[in-house]
Write a structure and sequence with these properties.
The protein is an alpha/beta fold. It is about 55% helix and about 10% strand. A five-stranded parallel sheet has the order 2-5-6-1-7, sandwiched between helices.
């Protein structure tokens, strides 16, 4: 059985890439975009396996059993390089020009044993201006038998001159049902756990798989929700204390606010539901284990209050990503949230 089956939910992308190999129309550069942990790197790695698979029958590539497939699957193949952004002390990721120059030197060498030399550049949207400009030269004059695979969240964040030289593959979030069934059938996660993870995943199968293996992911989510419940249960004075406490762990704030943002989205859905817009809640909310608390708050606050809180949470997240004053952003956020009645 072909290894293409390890790519779940992106059948059209598999068909496009496998067809390019079958019909000998492989491009020299591809830009694979979509949310984090949606399967971009899995798709790129599987494509690299298919390009260098040693199986005699093209339609059976990647076979998963030959030396090339196994080495690439373990990220140990000499002709397949994965370049990952470096992480700074504050958690900021960036692809540096030195990484690009080292890659260029490697790509100019002949392949050791593969049919192609393949470079997978993860999160190319984090590339510095110098790194992007240096890489542009490789795109304009790619070495023979070199395939460049870039991944990013959004194609609009990539330099237009780079974007235009790549074949674009935009991956979309998977359905909750597909993630849940995949967790049960492939990773043997029990029904209740797979249902919760599938709802929390927001279309990202990779996140759900990681969360099923790493208990700290859900534990940290519980901690973030406890901080939110503490904030909305207290007055303004206490909220200033909470803002101060949270601001001291700035590196954790993106994850905290993303958890809060998900909660407020659910609350807005429930608030709309209380206004007579009947919906099937299990199909549309993410935090299904918080349903009772969400419903209580949805009946306590107005639709306008819920929407204002959602917008301010989104704004705070945007501000912190752009190095705004951490404590001020948090104070403005917590003062926007409805006060206890």
């Amino acid at each position: 059985m072909s290894l293409w089956n390890q790519v779940i939910g992106h059948e059209w992308a598999v068909e496009l890439l496998s067809g390019a190999i079958t019909h000998e129309r492989v491009g020299h550069a591809y830009l694979i975009t979509g949310p984090d942990q949606i399967g971009k790197t899995t798709l790129a790695r599987t494509f690299a396996q298919a390009l260098n698979c040693q199986h005699e029958i093209v339609a059976e590539r990647p076979c998963g059993t030959c030396r090339s497939c196994k080495l690439i699957g373990q990220d140990k193949h000499l002709d397949v390089k994965i370049v990952t952004p470096e992480v700074s002390g504050r958690g900021k990721m960036s692809l540096k020009i030195d990484q690009i120059r080292a890659l260029q030197q490697d790509l100019n060498l002949s392949a050791y044993e593969g049919r192609y030399k393949v470079a997978i550049l993860k999160r190319f949207d984090t590339a510095t201006e110098g790194a992007a400009n240096a890489f542009l030269k490789t795109l304009e004059e790619p070495p023979n038998n070199v395939i460049l695979l870039l991944t990013a969240k959004d194609p609009d964040t990539i330099m237009a001159t780079i974007n235009s030289r790549c074949r674009n593959i935009g991956l979309r979030p998977l359905s909750t049902n597909l993630i849940e069934s995949s967790l049960q059938s492939r990773w043997h996660i029990d029904g209740a756990q797979s249902e919760l993870l599938a709802h929390l995943a927001d279309g990202r199968l990779g996140w759900a798989v990681n969360a099923s293996k790493d208990n700290t992911i859900l534990t940290e989510r519980d901690t973030h929700l406890e901080a939110l419940y503490e904030a909305i249960a207290h007055n303004r004075v206490k909220r200033f204390d909470i803002a101060d406490k949270l601001s001291r762990k700035a590196e954790d704030l993106p994850y905290v606010l993303e958890t809060w943002l998900s909660w407020w989205r659910d609350l807005n859905i429930l608030a709309q539901n209380t206004q007579g817009k009947q919906i099937t809640l299990s199909d549309v909310i993410s935090n299904i284990d918080q349903r009772e608390k969400l419903q209580t708050y949805a009946h306590s606050w107005t639709v306008e209050q819920a929407l204002a809180s959602l917008k301010q949470t989104n704004l705070a997240l945007w501000q912190l990503q752009r190095n705004a004053n951490t404590r001020l952003a948090l104070e403005n956020l917590l003062l926007t949230y409805p006060l206890p009645q």
